Amino acid sequence: MNADLGARLTEIDARIADAARSAGRDVASISRIVVTKFHPPELVKELYDLDVRDVGENRQQELSEKSSALAHLSGLRWHFVGQAQTNKARAIRSAATVMHSLDRMKLANALDSAAEPDSLPLDVLLQVNLTSDTGRGGVAPENLLALAEHAAAKVSLRVRGVMAVAPLEEQPARAFERLRGYADIVRSVVPDAEWISAGMSADFADAIAMGATHLRIGSAITGLRPQHG
């Protein structure tokens, strides 16, 4: 067991608790997802032994390989947090518990079509682009309502809320405040869609202050990523 891994996890959880207290929130209402990009399945097993149950991946191939290798770990929940191509929908759906990055109708259609007849609905979050760069992942805010209505009509999808990445050129708190407003738009369509996936290693305290329910934290817990490619 990597002692440093346990120490980093403990430190981040303490900081999450501090941020929740500062925001007047119950820390139990916040889920911490450990993003394990480029790390081997062995690290996920170490996290599991430290009582981590929510793990995130942003590449479909890695998600599929790790979830298959660790299928014997009861209660482990896989979160897909990266951009998705429609031709990866079936693979993502078969491996992920939650899809955080639904950002267009075509992808909603693909995820819905990939459902098996007896499969449970897939929890999805609608990713919103908080920048003016149309090349970034996420639906444009002005198209969020239409996407929410489209996804909510898919029986095999369960819209749980919104997700976003804070722009580098803006204070995270301001960006996450806008996201909180966009969450209200989704709730006008799906009243119980109360999840807000926001906040990463550098800005999760700001996200918590603005109502984030799901944090996506990578290197602050896992340590430096292995060299890749």
Describe the protein.
- The protein has a single domain (3-222), classed as Alanine racemase (TIM Barrel).
- Helices cover 39% and strands 17% of the residues.
- It has helices at 3-22, 41-49, 60-69, 89-95, 105-113, 144-152, 172-187, 204-209, 219-222; strands spanning 31-35, 54-57, 77-80, 98-102, 122-127, 157-163, 195-197, 214-217.
- An eight-stranded parallel sheet has the order 7-6-5-4-3-2-1-8.
- α4 (89-95) packs across α5 (105-113).
Q: Considering DSSP H and I runs of 4 or more, what fraction of the residues is helical?
A: 25-40%
How are the strands of the biggest sheet laid out side by side?
A: 7-6-5-4-3-2-1-8
What quaternary form is this? single chain
Alpha carbon gap, first and last residue? 26 Å
Tell me how many strands there are: 8
The assigned CATH architecture is Alpha-Beta Barrel
**Structural class per helix/strand content?**
alpha/beta
From the spread of the alpha carbons, the general shape counts as globular
Q: Report strand %.
A: 15-25%
Report the uncertain regions: none
Quickly list its features.
229 residues, TIM Barrel, 8 strands, alpha/beta, single chain, eight-stranded parallel β-sheet
Topology:
Blueprint: H1 3-22, E1 31-35, H2 41-49, E2 54-57, H3 60-69, E3 77-80, H4 89-95, E4 98-102, H5 105-113, E5 122-127, H6 144-152, E6 157-163, H7 172-187, E7 195-197, H8 204-209, E8 214-217, H9 219-222
Helix pairs in contact: 3-4, 4-5
Please summarize what this structure is:
This protein has 229 residues and is of the alpha/beta class.
